[in-house]
Amino acid sequence: MVFWNCLVTTHNRGVKKQNQNTTERLTVLGQFCKLIPKYSLASVCAELNKEGIQIAARAFSIWSHIVSMIYCHMAHCISLNDICDGLQNFKGNLNDIRNATAPHRNTLSHANRTRDIALIKKLFWKTVEHYQQTHPKFFTQGGRSYFRLPRRFKRAIRAIDSTTIELIAKCMDWAKHRKHKAAAKVHVALDLISFIPIRVVTDSANHHDGSYMSELCGNMKSGDIAVMDRAYVDYLQLNTLTEQGVFWVTRSKSNMKVKVIKQLNKGKQNAPVDGKPPPLSNHIKR
Fold it and tell me: Which of 68, 126, 134, 249 would be a feasible disulfide site paired with 40, CB 3.0-4.6 Å?
């Protein structure tokens, strides 16, 4: 509600009457959505239709779906009711944004479930390419590429980590962590391209992280990359990922026994001494 009341006032000098200011009611959401070129969405939809990707969802237009999701992030909505109620109360302002319509909860839920995420990915990169051509100086800093601009990865990268949530032991017996403490642990596999969680596993905190590797690394394809902490080191599962052609990156444990099979040197700094490879340090400081 508060988000829609944030109006921006623009002052334009009149031609006939000097020093006369005019006020335009334009929401922050409207300004943000107008940064997306009109032709970009049509071009993306045409490409996806040729590829046979599902983008239709009942009578809910694609543009209205995109505007609803942008509003969700900018207004920090936590549920479908927050999104739908906020947009339903301001249909007039929403109609000014290229005739976008406010969704109902079931309609928005169906669109989120059926529409492919490739639509948003392609639209994002189309918009980036548009502003790289029209405003090239915006993407450079001191003659170099702007380091904060996200890059398009050629491979699928999955980051795996966990967090512990402390609970009340008397109320939640299933989450007993220690004698007088209870805790739940949430394991998340995050796609670093879309920043959308692929796998989420919630269980009591008394289980080792490595026991969830098979669930978090499921459906990974050959050529994908998995990045994880050393708590997820499970030799059987890592060997399975290697056989599947999946690359994985992790830290070594302090008690890990390793044998150097091959070394690829780069530069003189890591060159072998007397024909022997340098020792692998297990005690790496953060």
Answer: 126
Q: Are 188 and 200 in contact (CB under 8 A)?
A: yes
Whose tokens are 């335009």? That residue is 24
Domain locations in the chain as residue ranges:
7-140, 157-249
| DSSP secondary structure code for residue 267 in this structure | S
Query: Tokens at residue 152, please?
Result: 């398009």
Q: In whole angstroms, give the CA distance from residue 9 to residue 31.
A: 12
Six-digit token string for 32:
């943000």
Report d(CA 87, CA 204) in Å as an integer: 39
- Residue 42 to residue 49: CA distance in whole angstroms: 11
The burial class, CB within 10 Å (0-12 / 13-18 / 19+), for 219 is exposed
Region class of 257: left (phi > 0), else alpha (psi between -120 and 50), else beta: beta
Buried/exposed 145-166: b ≥16 CB within 10 Å, e otherwise: eeeeeeeeeeebbbbbbbeeee
CA distance 193 to 9: 36
| SS3 label, residue 90 | coil
Q: For 201-248, what is each residue's pLDDT tens digit?
A: 988 878 888 889 989 998 898 999 999 998 898 888 899 999 999 999
How far apart are alpha carbons 5 and 80 in whole angstroms? Answer: 20
Residue 2 has what DSSP assignment?
T
For the record, the structure tokens of 279 come out as 């020792």
> From the CB of residue 181, how many other CB atoms can be counted at a distance below 10 Å?
13
Q: What is the pTM of this model?
A: 0.54
58 and 113 in contact (C-beta within 8 Å)?
A: no
Task: Give the CATH superfamily of 157-249.
Answer: Ribonuclease H-like superfamily/Ribonuclease H (3.30.420.10)
